[in-house]
Specification:
Number of domains: 4
Number of helices: 22
Shape: globular
Oligomer: single chain
Radius of gyration: 31 Å
CATH class of the largest domain: Mainly Alpha
Distance between the termini: 49 Å
CATH topology of the largest domain: Topoisomerase I, domain 2
Strand content: 15-25%
Structural class: alpha+beta
CATH architecture of the largest domain: Orthogonal Bundle
Number of strands: 25
Helix content: 25-40%
Strand order of the largest sheet: 2-3-4-1-7-8
Length: 715
């Protein structure tokens, strides 16, 4: 009898896999499947809970590395080890036991390098060795795709290389984050800084690019410029035009007016000299990758990139869309074939009907050579019923409709419009007028119509005739040059993806183009959330601005590789080599150590130029919050990732999390718990649904929910 154990990344993924088979038994930690033609002896599905294991922290290697001290740097363990993540011991033990009993283990975590990392990190910590490992590699959670994937499991050769790539990335990010954050924070605290900085290989250059835009806006000096505008009255209506004159010096513009005998607000006669009409065709947009969808959703509905990814993940788990964390805009002929079969049902979902322009694959959208691990985000074969659609949240409906419309658009006709250019002569000075008229809406009928204000920017032109005389009035128009606009969150995603365009070194530009900028498709949204949480940037009404703390960070890292996307370019380029078997994890980690050594030497001198600013954080991050409720010696202080007792060396083990059931616990909440043992009812906790509850301390000084004081007690 062959015992097959399948590891999913999270419970929702395990549930989706299980629903493609017949379930024999469900428990808290695994699901048993009945035997069938794919698994003749049945199979067991278990799962991680996000990251079941994580890299050990500095103090796990040496107790003296717990305190932030300059003389302890650099912190570079001889060998890196994992440990079970806090609060996940029970699930880890269940996975370990199942792995020990297995004859074959299947990695069914997400199909990317981090999925490989999660699986092999867990496997390594269980100590289970020399068992056959297979890899599930699918792009959809639909029943037939899941079954097809399990029927055609892959070997783990590529998976192991991806694990090496991911582990090299994880260890190097750990080394940079731990050492650079402590180094810069401690040196700045010597100058009077009352908070702390976190520094990361990707997050820091991202903040620096926002800082560069901030400096461009701040240093911008608006200047006037002058043009000559004409207003014309034709038999068929009015229109405006501009002379091809643009000068900073008003006297030069006035001289041109004088040369042509033109006076402001004088009734003149113009002559329609030429009318050029061109019919133009616009093809439908490319299929969505994650970043293009994040940009569109941010522009249209002001959704944050992380909210788009969460919404997409829900749609994926509901089997409505394909794998979300993709950087690809293409599909293969296999996907194209099923889309063709389902065209009518997809049109029904959008409540629209059109005759496809072509049912043959077009290289603009269908190109197997451009598809690597994942194809573009498209609807699955299962078109939702109206009942299922109405059960989706407004955000889910909007995102699904956008994906569906973009997919259907490749079967639709081109958008056709007529572009008209009119030249009107007034006293031998030509004025240019351009306008656009829709001829055929084509694929655009699938999308929401643009707002009226957008349409007003492209006014309809009257039907004038060549040689027609028109009434004319001209004037000098004064305008001001405009500074660059701050980024929106959607533009931030694009900026991270295309930051190679901002760099001078051609080699770095090429590498960044190849690796697609800062971060990966899957991580950009979380990087933006991280720099928001660290208070380096603020987002108000979808506009991103840098804070005083962010400016200080950028002044501190200015001139180092930490401020430049080029470090990420070089790192990502080498990481890809590890993934393809051409590079070495050990070499990469050694190079990171050398980079940290150089940072240790250079930073003390460069930090002198940084101006200490008020960050709005009133208290030092490690100042006492309240007396420890358990011991009489210590105080509860902020330990960066959690709250804990300052008397831990004397044996007090009291700690509190910074987040509980999806809600951040503030210093005031912790203070109230320590002093009064219970809080008032707090909103915003997340379970299957959002809920409210009071918090209380139990006899072991652990935080518990207090529903009886929340109006939610059991009757």
């Amino acid at each position: 009898m062959t015992k097959v154990v399948i590891l999913a990344e999270k419970p929702s993924q395990a549930k989706a896999y299980a629903e493609a088979f017949t379930i024999l038994e469900k428990t808290k930690t695994y699901i048993l499947l009945k035997p069938d033609d794919i698994f003749p002896d049945g199979a067991t599905i278990t799962w991680g809970v996000g990251h079941l294991v994580e890299l050990k922290e500095p103090h796990d290697y040496k107790p003296e590395w717990k305190k932030w001290k300059l003389d302890q740097l650099p912190i570079v363990p001889e060998k890196f080890y994992e440990k079970v993540s806090k609060g996940k011991w029970e699930q880890f033990q269940a996975v370990k036991k199942l792995f020990q009993q297995a004859n074959v283990i299947v990695n069914a975590a997400d199909v990317d390098r981090e999925g490989s990392n999660i699986f092999y990190s867990i496997l390594r910590l269980t100590g289970v060795k020399e068992k056959p490992i297979r890899r599930l590699w699918i792009n959809s959670l639909e029943k037939d795709e899941v079954r097809k994937g399990f029927r055609n499991l892959q070997n783990n050769e590529k998976d192991l290389r991806l694990f090496d790539e991911a582990k090299a990335r994880q260890i190097s990010d750990w080394m940079v984050g731990i050492n650079a954050s402590r180094l810069f924070t401690l040196l700045l605290q010597k100058k009077g800084f009352a908070s702390y900085l976190t520094i990361g290989r990707v997050q820091s250059p991202t903040v620096y690019l926002i800082y560069q835009r901030h400096k461009e806006i701040e240093s911008f000096q608006s200047e006037p410029f002058y043009q000559i505008e004409g207003s014309f009255q034709a038999a068929a209506g009015t229109y405006k035009g501009m002379a091809e004159v643009k000068e900073k010096d008003k006297t030069k513009v006035q001289a041109i007016m004088d040369e042509h005998g033109l006076k402001e607000k004088e009734s003149l006669t113009g002559l329609v000299q030429t009318i050029n009409k061109k019919t133009k065709h616009q093809k439908s947009p490319k299929l969505h990758s994650l970043s293009t969808l994040q940009s569109v959703a941010n522009r249209r509905w002001k959704y944050t990139p992380s909210h788009v990814l969460k919404t997409l993940q829900k749609l994926y788990e509901k089997r409505l869309v394909s794998y979300p964390r993709t950087d690809c805009n293409f599909i293969t002929e296999n996907e194209f074939a099923y889309l063709v079969k389902n065209l009518n049902s997809y049109q029904g979902v959008l409540n629209i009907s059109f005759t496809p322009a072509s049912l043959k694959p077009n290289k603009r959208y269908v190109n197997g050579s451009k598809v690597q691990e994942h194809y573009a985000i498209i609807p699955t074969k299962s078109a939702p019923t109206s009942k299922k659609l109405s059960g989706l949240s407004r955000e889910e409906q909007n995102i699904y409709h956008e994906i569906l419309a973009t997919t259907l658009a490749m079967f639709h006709t081109d958008y056709v419009y007529e572009e008209t250019t009119i030249f009107t002569n007034v006293h031998d000075l030509p004025f240019k007028t351009t306008g656009k008229r829709e001829v055929k809406s084509g694929w655009k009928e699938l999308f929401p119509k643009p707002s009226k204000s957008k349409q007003e920017k492209e006014p309809n032109l009257p039907n004038v005739q060549k040689g027609e005389k028109v009434g004319a009035e001209v004037h000098i128009k004064e305008s001001m040059t405009q500074p660059p606009k701050p980024y929106t969150e959607g533009q931030l995603i694009n900026m991270m993806k295309t930051c190679g365009k901002l760099m001078d070194d051609e080699a770095d530009v090429e590498i960044l183009k190849e690796v697609e900028g800062l971060g990966t498709e899957a991580t950009r949204a979380s990087i933006i959330e991280t720099i928001k949480a660290q208070k380096y940037i603020e987002v108000r009404k979808n506009t991103v601005s840098i804070t005083n703390k962010g400016i200080m960070l950028c002044e501190a890292i200015e001139g180092t590789l930490l401020s430049s996307p080029s470090m990420t370019a070089k790192w990502e380029s080498y990481l890809k080599k590890i993934g393809s078997g051409e590079g070495s994890k050990q070499v990469f980690i050694k190079q990171t150590s050398q980079f940290i050594e150089k940072l240790m030497q250079d930073t003390p001198g460069s930090i002198q130029k940084v101006s200490i600013r008020s960050t709005g954080e009133k208290k030092k991050w490690n100042e006492p919050i309240a007396k420890c409720p358990a011991c009489s010696k210590g105080s509860i202080v902020d330990r960066y990732k959690f709250y804990g007792c300052s008397a831990y060396k004397e044996g007090c083990k009291v700690t509190f999390p910074k987040k509980l059931a999806g809600k951040a616990l503030t210093r005031n909440t912790i203070k109230t718990l320590c002093e009064r043992k219970q809080t008032k009812v707090l909103k915003g906790f997340k379970g299957k649904k959002t809920f409210s509850t009071a918090l209380a301390l139990d006899e072991d000084y652990k935080i518990k929910f207090c529903f009886k004081d929340s109006g939610m007690g059991v009757k």
